[in-house]
Amino acid sequence: MPPEQRKIVVVGAGSGIGAATAAHYHRAGDFILAVDLRPGDTPASRHEQCDLRDAAAIDELLKRIGSDWDVLAYVAGVPGTAPAYDVLAVNYLGMRLMTEGMLPRLREGGSIVTVASVAALGWDQRLEALSGLLDATDIETVRRWQDTQDPNYPVYSTSKQASIIYAKRLAPAALQKYGVRINTVSPGPTETPILADFETSMGKDVLDMVKATVGRHASVDDIVPVIAFLASPAARWINGQDVHVDGGFVAPMSAGAPIRL
Ligand SMILES: NC(=O)c1ccc[n+]([C@@H]2O[C@H](COP(=O)([O-])OP(=O)(O)OC[C@H]3O[C@@H](n4cnc5c(N)ncnc54)[C@H](O)[C@@H]3O)[C@@H](O)[C@H]2O)c1
Predict the structure, then answer these.
(1) Handedness of CA 180, 114, 251, 152 (dihedral sign)
(2) How far away, in angstroms, is 106 Cα from ligand 1 center?
């Protein structure tokens, strides 16, 4: 292995943003472990199938892959059209188990980047409401928490809010103990297969309005360089941040009326 080659785990590498992330690093000559539920044809050095809803499968995966990794990119996700248990299991708990399992397997100077979403906007108002979910470290507790929620609550946004809050809470200790930074990237609507599900769960009119406001949906090539930057040594003092990659759609929502030019 050439000395500059990095070892990258991309979780959710089978499609969309994850596949593009793996391809990006593969093109750069890095060693890529591509993890997904489905058998993948994503360009990678090694493929592993893992169902992120299954804690035992994650545990087995972690044992198989060893250590000395540079980056964990947790990109896997399911939309709000999936069963609520699955949304919380893949988008939140699976991410948490992979993150905690990978921390001792990453080299000092390594980095974890989780893909959240602009749908998590308002996460800072939800610390109290999500405390039970944020305390959960196993699927039974996550399911019990889910069972107490209103049937129509926005489970996808909630899973992404929990991901951002979790990353922010863990990031200082991860850097101090392991020398590993943790950040999240929150895309706006992005042209991948999941977008059709978002049109169903969030409403096509909402997504069309976002598109009209910023001019287009993102492509994976808008998102991947941001993941790569946060994962790189160039971002060595950025820790515990959530970066919106949405063409600026969300920015005025927390800053008051947009200035018109
Ligand atoms: N595309 C968008 O508009 C958009 C916007 C904001 C955030 N996101 C987030 O970006 C991430 C990537 O989504 P995408 O747009 O590339 O969607 P995608 O559907 O193309 O890819 C998601 C990947 O996750 C994998 N996955 C799902 N369930 C799994 C499981 N149980 N075990 C293992 N792998 C599993 C799928 O097999 C798939 O390869 C997701 O976390 C999504 O929530 C997407």
Answers:
(1) negative
(2) 23
Does the structure show a pLDDT above 60 at 1?
A: no
In DSSP terms, 8 is beta-bridged to 32, 71
Number of independent structural domains in the chain: 1
Rounded to the nearest angstrom, the distance between the alpha carbon of 95 and the centre of ligand 1 is: 12
Q: Residue 154: which of 119, 196, 192, 110 has the closest Cα? A: 119
The pLDDT tens digits for 126-169 are 999 999 999 999 999 999 999 999 989 999 999 999 999 999 99
CB 80 within 8 A of CB 87: yes
Q: Which protein residue has the closest C-alpha to ligand 1 atom 7? A: 117
Question: Is residue 88 within 6 Å of ligand 1 at its C-beta?
Answer: no
Residue 2 included in any domain: no
Q: Is the dihedral of CA 209, 214, 216, 221 positive or negative?
A: negative
Q: Residue 261: inside a domain, yes or no?
A: no
* 193 pocket-lining for ligand 1 (C-beta < 6 Å): yes
Mean pLDDT of 166-194: 98
How high is the mean pLDDT of the chain?
Answer: 96
pTM of the entire predicted model: 0.98
The answer to the question of residue 77 being in a domain is yes
Counting from 1 in the atom list of ligand 1, the atom nearest the Cα of 18 is: 16
* Residue span of the structural domain in which 174 resides: 7-248
Q: Is residue 112 part of a domain?
A: yes
CATH number at residue 106: 3.40.50.720
